[in-house]
Amino acid sequence: MAFPWRLIVGIAFTHIRGRTRQTALSILGVATGVGFAIAMAGLMEGSQSDFISRIVDSTPHVVVKDEFRDPPLQPVARRHAGAAIALRGVKPKEELRGIRNPRPKLAALDALPGVAAAPILRGQVVLRYGGKEVAASLIGIEPKRERRVSQVESDMIAGTLDSLYGAANGIILGRSLARKLAAEMGSTLSVTSPAGVMLKMKVVGLVDSGIVSLDEGTSYALLKKVQVLLERPNIVNEIRLRLDDVTAARAIAHRVETRIGYKSESWEEANEGILETFAIRNIIIYTVVSGILIVAAFGIFNIVSTITFEKAHDIAILKSLGFRESDIRALFLFEGLLMGGVGTLLGWGLGYALCRILGTVHIQIRPGAEAMALPVIYAPAHYLIAAAAALSAAAIAGYLPARRAARLNPVDIIRGAT
Amino acid sequence: MGTPARTVRASESTAAVVAEEVTRVLPGAVATTLVESVDLVIGAGEFVAITGPSGSGKSSLLYLLGLLDRPTSGRILLEGRDTGAFGRDEAAAFRLSRIGFVFQFHFLLPEFTVMENVMIPLRRLSGRAHGRLAVRAQDILESLGIAALRDRRPDQLSGGERQRAAIARALANDPPIVLADEPTGNLDSHNADLVFSILGELAAKEGRTVIAVTHDAALAARAGRRVGLVDGRIVADSGPSV
């Protein structure tokens, strides 16, 4: 007595055909849940990967900083590791902060495969021009190395990084900073450092990174000039690395740190807060989407329950004819799954359509900036996950009334009819 | 008392239906006894009418004999097999192949045609090709004179036609035992007559054991054997007819 699939399926279809409107509503519920789940997932993951690729494009992948994760051990503690040591009257050594003598370190980093390194020295200065005074940070760079690791050159709207070599003391200003100072290309500014050194510097380039707060307070000059200005010869305070393989950032940061001792931060570590925010956002969205799917499951539960109530006679008849409880269970479970399945297929279509529509929406955050299309990605995994969730919900929603229907005692119903 | 003597014991092993001390009590705040200490031996090929006033437990006895219900105590043997040991699936399988049910209200599936209704038990039992089952169903419909109605739905049939369709479905898997619960209860006298004749022929010509519950004394008189029930107890039995 093989399981009569075709017979069960045939009876299920007949049941469902009898209530087109209710069935259509349940199916639409599932379709909406699946569709929005797919669209949400596509949009979220799209914006996330878009954001990450912006970070990856615009910031160094690994930054070697002039600090240490843990304070260095006292020599006596290093000598007697694990011993109980009491030190009294320790006076900290006056040390110039920074990465000293960076040349050999840079050479070592450059030797790593797929790694490009560039040093910078950053300091606060005061820029004066025509009676205006603006405090800004001045970043000392080596143009030849810098263009290998950052986007500064492509953000320049006037001049090039190489024009720093052209003038005796060249300086590149952020566009908004130049506006604040009312300085133009060719203007000569006086630049004063906290060390009291003053240099006359000529504007040889302008940068527009697209981030106003950054452009308002950033300027660039040659590393050597900045070292003079800040009185920190042969010192840099960051070495930035750009990798061919972005995903190796953590591993390379760790390797660099163990090798040269300075704290090395990968882009993931630097943006941990943002990545955490993404994780929380994902949880929120998936909770909402699960809610939609659960509501859709209630729709299925409702209609399968209704059918089992209306079809109590049929159930009694089938059982008196010799159908087993498992046949009855399979019948109503199948009806739930059928609605879930059809809803899922429609939901796939709806999800794809929503993604297409969302992809054409352009948003403009800053006036004057280029409008950005919503980043949507299309991933088969989203479709499969949404389908799995919808079908499991439909299976549960169908199984519960199916189990109750299978337990119906035919005698009770036959008695009730007479 | 009309309680049958236990002299028929010897034939129990070959009897189609045997009830031994069968009692069915509905549990509840006030327990109701539906059937009480029924002893009955029905031979293969007998046509038995169970009669009694309404509430006498005749339908309850029929459901017990058809394995739709389980006795509170006592034993039911069908074709020599003790059904007390049957699990639910075994009982269902036995009903499917060995028992045909006909109810007072035809109980056809309303959304299926006459042909489809007859096909459902056929298809549940058999893995055979659809076409051969259809031939079998067609034969049954013809033998009952309703082949022309095969594509109608139950609501397009008259009462007598529906009851004949229900008999056709009961006969689908060629069961040796046919149980009918007030099969003529909703029919006019002409159709009641016809349906009862059909049931009689199932026993006389085809050798099936037919047990029909009825409160119509005139119809019951045409059965080979009459068993009278009052308050769940057998009060009269005309004795084995074969």
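qc> The mean pLDDT of chain A is 85.
qc> done
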